[in-house]
């Protein structure tokens, strides 16, 4: 979604160049991998790093989406 090959675990999505369109693309990709509806793109405001996003998705009992971010 950021047009980069790698993003650090603790790198802020928005500081790395992410915007609302990239956030929506990322959530759509997560939905495609888990075969369900996408999480709200606003989730990235509360969890802007891969580590935080993975933890937040796991908290919401969404283990499939959290696992794909590893």
List keywords for this structure.
single chain; 50% helix; 4 helices; 0% strand; 70 residues; mainly alpha; globular
What's the helix and strand layout?
Layout: H1 20-34, H2 43-46, H3 50-59, H4 63-68
In short:
With 70 residues, the protein is mainly alpha-helical. The protein has helices at residues 20-34, 43-46, 50-59, 63-68.
Helix count equals 4
Distance between the termini: 16 Å
Which structural class do you get from the secondary structure elements? Answer: mainly alpha
Helix fraction?
40-55%
- State Rg: 11 Å
Oligomer: single chain
- The count of DSSP E runs of length 2 or more, i.e. the number of strands, is 0
Strand proportion: under 5%
Any overview of this molecule?
The protein contains four helices and no strands. It has 70 residues and is mainly α. The longest helix is centred in the middle third of the chain and has 15 residues, at 20-34.
